[in-house]
């Protein structure tokens, strides 16, 4: 039986395309069928044995053993859109920067490919979010997110009024710039920038983080993974914008209601040599483990 892999690349970076060619050649030499999305082929200059697939479409990853994302977090999220519906494991390979989503680094690319060929890796499942927006009794948007779903003000000069329900019960009405609903994976992204807590990825929970809320109680909340959030745009406020993972956006008219809950499908992340999340956190934020004044003598 032929083994297969889908290669998703940030073609705007020369380094990414160079390493993508190396990965494709190594996988082909190991007997893999290597698939590449048609719109990326012209920029990659790959061997003729590579299979071109139409995309972006989940069918591109149908039946593959693994999806490899060559680039930063944006490339990873784009690859996740292909891998998640068909439950394909996803390996992120970054460009030398420490990241939360990528697992392998360019400096260890040969070893990463060898581990893929040997099957020497484990697969973790990351919680996702399903989101639905309704207005006037009809669905106007439906999507999902790995990191976060945000509802933000659509007009810079005006505050957004949002009524927030948790588990079907009203929690608070915020005059704010918006609200972020995040997963533990996304806790170090937008939610972190808005003042939310860092949550270890193994924790099953949902986060709700108000953005610049004019309220006495505007602390970020961590709820059970079974919880659901409802964010209703006040009928007398300005329009809002719904955004999933910073990639997919919709305008929300006053009176629209957004429901966010745990996603039915997780994203399956490949881990080659898993590192403690503490180590990743320290490296990403350059935390002063010896203290701000250096080590004591």
What's the mean pLDDT score? Answer: 91
Q: What's the CATH class of the largest domain, please?
A: Alpha Beta
Question: What sequence of helices (H) and strands (E) makes up the elements?
Answer: EHEHEEHEEHEEEEEEEHEEEEEEEH
Low-confidence stretches: none
In what order do the strands lie side by side in the largest sheet?
A: 3-2-1-4-5-6
What is the CATH third-level topology name of the largest domain? Rossmann fold
User: What would you call the shape?
Assistant: globular
Total strand segments: 20
Number of domains: 2
Task: Round the Cα radius of gyration to an integer and report it.
Answer: 21 Å
State the end-to-end distance.
Answer: 61 Å
Sheet of most strands: 6 strands, parallel
Q: Would you identify the CATH architecture of the largest domain?
A: 3-Layer(aba) Sandwich
Give the count of helical stretches: 6
Task: Estimate what percentage of residues fall within beta strands.
Answer: 35-45%
Query: What structural class results from the helix and strand content?
Result: alpha+beta
Task: Estimate percent helicity.
Answer: 10-25%
The named CATH superfamily of the largest domain? Probable inorganic polyphosphate/atp-NAD kinase, domain 1
EC number: 2.7.1.23
Cofactor: a divalent metal cation
Organism: Paractinoplanes lichenicola
GO molecular function: NAD+ kinase activity
């Amino acid at each position: 039986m032929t083994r297969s892999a889908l290669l998703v690349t940030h073609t705007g970076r020369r380094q990414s395309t160079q390493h993508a060619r190396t990965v494709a050649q190594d996988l082909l030499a190991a007997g893999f069928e290597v698939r590449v999305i048609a719109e990326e082929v012209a920029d990659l200059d790959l061997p003729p044995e590579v299979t071109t697939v139409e995309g972006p479409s989940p069918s591109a990853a149908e039946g593959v053993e693994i999806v490899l994302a060559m680039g930063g977090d944006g490339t990873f999220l784009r690859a996740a859109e292909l891998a998640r519906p068909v439950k394909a494991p996803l390996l992120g390979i970054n460009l030398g920067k420490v990241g939360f989503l990528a697992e392998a680094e360019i400096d260890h690319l040969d070893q990463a490919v060898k581990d893929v060929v040997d099957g020497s890796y484990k697969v973790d499942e990351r919680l996702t979010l399903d989101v639905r927006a309704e207005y006037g009794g009809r669905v106007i948007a439906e999507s999902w997110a790995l990191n976060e779903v945000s509802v933000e003000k659509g007009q810079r000069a005006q505050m957004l009024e949002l009524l927030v329900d948790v588990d079907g019960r009203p929690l608070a009405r915020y005059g704010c710039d918006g609200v972020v609903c995040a997963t533990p994976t996304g806790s170090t992204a937008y939610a972190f920038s808005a003042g939310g807590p860092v949550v270890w990825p193994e924790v099953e929970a949902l986060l709700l983080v108000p953005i610049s809320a004019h309220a006495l109680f505007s602390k970020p909340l961590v709820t059970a993974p079974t919880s659901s959030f409802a964010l209703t745009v006040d009928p007398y406020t300005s329009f809002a914008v719904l955004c999933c993972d910073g990639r997919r956006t919709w305008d929300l008219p006053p009176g629209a209601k957004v429901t966010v809950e745990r996603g039915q499908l997780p994203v399956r992340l490949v881990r080659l040599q898993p590192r403690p999340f503490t180590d990743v956190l320290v490296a990403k934020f350059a935390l002063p483990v010896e203290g701000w004044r250096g080590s004591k003598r």
